[in-house]
Each structure stands twice: as structure tokens, then as C-alpha cells.
Amino acid sequence: MSEQMPRDLGSRDPTSRDHAMSVAAISSGRIESDENIWTRRLVLFLRVMAVVSMMQGLYHWAQVTGFVGTEDDAFEVQTMGWQTATIYFAVIELVSAVGLWLATPWGAVVWLTTVVSMAVIELMFPTIYGGNLLIVGVQAAFLAGYLALAWMAARERPP
């Protein structure tokens, strides 16, 4: 006396469910790509900044370890301020590179800290790295680019 339920109510066909899910994923991806263009641009910018941060961090580590520079420029003969700033940037640049690549909020915060720190050191303590205004300008341009992209990405998402 076993009664079977109608096929459309009782049994689930995994292929039809997978097909429905794949169609929904395709259609939602198409809508999402049109609506989130600024978010995608922001993530691309963060990835580019991650590569830049990694290169800067590796450069600072090369200064610490002696891979770049001459004997006159060796880490040991530099001032305490220069050594401290170089170690600081060697560590924080690599941390920010990881966070930026993953597009995490903490990565952006750490990166913003490095940008502001470098600008402050160049402007307020010119004896450490020489007070190069070009570096300050580039850091300001990176910061302005990030703020503009973050603002545009936030506008395309409803509150």
C-alpha cells in the first residue's frame, strides 16, 4: 500500500536544481557586474597598491639586510631615526600588502597608516629620508584615488 507522491512534489531531481542554481548565478552575475563597477575598480586599485606596498616593503628589507646600497649606506651606519623608520616601513608595508590584496577593511586601514606615516616623515622629519616632496605628492595622489574610488563604490550600494 505504498503510495507515491507526484514526481514534482516528492522527489527532488538534483540536475534540475543545479540547472536552476546555475541559471540564477549567471543572471545575478550579469546584474552584479553592471551595478558594482566601482567596487570592482576599487578592488583592482587595492590589488595594485598591494603590489606597490610589497615592493616598498621588500625594498626596506633590502636596505636592512644590505642587499642595496654601498658600505657607506649600510644600515648600521645610519642614524637611529633612519633605522627605526626603515624597520617600521619594512614591517608595515608587507602587512598592508597582504590586507590590500585580500581587500579587507583592516588592510585599507594599515595601508592608510603607511601612506600618512610616510608623508609625515617626509614633511615633519626631513633629516630621516631627506624630505622629498615628490614622495609626498605621490602618496597624496594614492590617497585621493583611494578615497574617490571608495566613495563611488559606497554610492552604488544602497544603505
UniProtKB/TrEMBL annotation:
Keywords: Membrane, Transmembrane, Transmembrane helix. The chain crosses the membrane at residues 42-62, 82-102, 109-128, 134-154. The keyword Ribosomal protein does not apply. InterPro entries: DUF6163 (IPR046161). The keyword Transmembrane applies. It comes from the Bacteria. This is DoxX family protein.
